[in-house]
Task: structure prediction
Amino acid sequence: MNPRLSFSALALLAACAQAPQRPTAPPRAVDLSAVAPQPRPNGLATDWHQGAFMEIFVRAYQDSDGDGVGDLRGLISRLDYLKELGVTGLWLMPVTASADHDHGYATTDFRAIERDYGTLEDFDELLRQAHARGIGVIIDYVVNHSSHEHPLFQAARADPQSPQRDWFVWSEEAPQGWDIWGKNPWYWAAAKPWAWQGELKDLPKPPPDAKGHYFGTFGPHMPDFNLKRAEVFNWHLSNLRFWLNRGLDGFRLDAVPHLVENNAKDWNDQPESRRLTKRLFDAISAYPGRYTVCEATAEPQAYSRPEVCGSAFAFGLERAILQAVQGKTEAVGEIGRFFQTRPHRMATMLANHDIFAGARIWDQLQGDEARYKLAAASYLLQPGIPFIYYGEEIGLAGVTQLPGDGPIRGPMSWDGSANAGFTRATAPFRPTAPNAATQNAAAQRADPNSLFHHYRGLLALRQQQRALRSGSYEGVQVEGSVLSYLRRSGGETLLVALNYSAQPQSLNRPERDARAVRVWPEAAPSLPAGVLPAWGAQVWLLDSGE
Result:
């Protein structure tokens, strides 16, 4: 049997109910072949993923060919910058072929590179060049759904008798009582709901006799796979191996609590979703030195356990940090308590590509660099695997006039030239940041007191002090606006103290005696010993183990 099966890209069904039409358009090939695992070391340091990651939206990072869109070759040209900053891992938002030609989560081919970004050969070269610099690469993988334009869904939609019909979730009648984020996730296929231009809540209801409804957690343009079917799930495992066999270093698994929905009440974080996530995690972990992180807004602590995904984003911590640096004293204790009860392999962040996680940090803090630097220190010194959102390290502002997630997905600012050095095209795919003239990589690298050098110094400290990368978290103490704690690894003990106040504050820790050696910041403070500067952080080495 030929493993590459062909399915038709069919003419869309009429907007009224009618008998399904047979394929007439030329077929499009979908690679359904089983991919055998070929585990081999990636050549990186065993703890490469415990350094720090940079989350990169390739479309917005660097354009190499002048079309106004970032691409893989552009990213390759910026690897030395990332190495200089000190990151040891890259998380790329979806780079697979997509229908949206933007964020990339509406996948049309799980084994191909988005054409705007380049080719598989470009991707292979990115892996080679990143590995040569000691940097690992993980990519977003969307298990839950495809684009409505995916050939498999086109075949399933066109013919109820198609063998691909059961690859997606269907109901002849329109299920009632569902409400996922204010919408019914069941869509009448014949009405072409993906073409609706208004709010989904205003989507016209189908007639009572309408037949053929499909399920889409994230909207009509992204139909959910039927992951209860072994053939479908095993195909996803083969897709993961396709990339791992090329040398990829791991995955960020998207929206895993939504893999299985059982009914209108039991649709979020079902036991089946956790079991499937564990199988994905195990398949990736069969390759030496690989790393998996899950997006699980529901119960991220549970998904961080090795029984599920091994690591998941620490949603909630970023909110507490931003509240604390804006003067909300009660949030200081929340920061201190967070990792007392949560796995240390959780992935931490200040912001990411989703607006629900917050606007650009520059905008949230109105450009206040002292508070900005304290926010960075807050998560880079705590346990967890930090993920820096591209541009965060230079104070990239959002393009606030754009709708939806657009404001936080603008082009990276590289210098003060036209289009901020992002592209030589007349105009980039999206406007550049309003503060690009001052908050750009070239200007930041030239200023030793900049955000860039603050991030670079903290990442270097993490690399120098194993206790910060993988040590214990103990002795947590909160006194008003001051948070302090110990990080230990082997014989090495560090004392970390942070002042979330506009006034200098005394640190009451007997461990910080005359033998303590300050290792951060490098510049000597102007205040007496034991006094923390306003919006400041300090780290002391108490015992080097020598």
